[in-house]
Amino acid sequence: MGLRDLVYRVYERRLETKLSKDSVPRHVGVIIDGNRRWARAMGMSDVATGHRRGADKISELLTWCHETGVEVVTVWMLSNDNLNRPREELEPLLRIIEDVTQELVDEGWRISPVGALDLLPDRTANVLKNAKEVTSHRPGLIVNVAVGYGGRREIADAVRSLLQEHASKGASIEDLVEVLDVEHIAEHLYTRGQPDPDLLIRTSGEQRLSGFMLWQSAHSEFYFHEAYWPDFRRVDFLRALRDYAARHRRYGS
Fold this sequence. Notes:
Layout: H1 3-18, E1 27-31, H2 35-41, H3 48-68, E2 72-79, H4 87-106, E3 110-114, H5 122-135, E4 142-149, H6 151-168, H7 173-179, H8 182-186, E5 199-202, E6 221-224, H9 234-245
Helix pairs in contact: 1-9, 2-3, 3-4, 4-5
């Protein structure tokens, strides 16, 4: 271990000792941004190498979350807009997503797909559905794998599901209008039954949500980090938790 690594290890321990279990977010959402730029910065012509390196980092993130007491993690791997990327880039990325999903299953995590699976190729959608089926009984940390995800699409799907549910009961649009509340829509989101994210992290220096968890992030705290996702370290994650713990969440009051 080099001197620099030793210094970071000591710093990590200091951060950990200052974290109170009461101040750890229950739900952390992560926009894992910068994989392609990391690959190019490293002189790699094949950006799939960056995606693979970024996929490997996800297991580390989940371990960090588990160790600190986080209950739910949502990892945004692929947006619905990303599905418009050139085929020669999209297909290797989908294979990587399939592989990492299976790796997370094998590691013992509880997987919940989050996104419009009907937009995905059958092979990818089936891998995600199977991951949910075989891990649904597992206790502990819930891992939302956001693939083919878009915040606007999620809200539209929730409203569509809500309308279908009421129509199946013989209710009219007028009946629904009389009783419609925000909670009715929340009950049809991809993340229904889960707490909203307390903390949203985005890497690569970009300071926007890009449509990530638009509904659920109404009261979330945001943390933006300069590092590309493959370079995101445990000490960076602990700093994000420390920053979150220092904020005063008033929920509009």
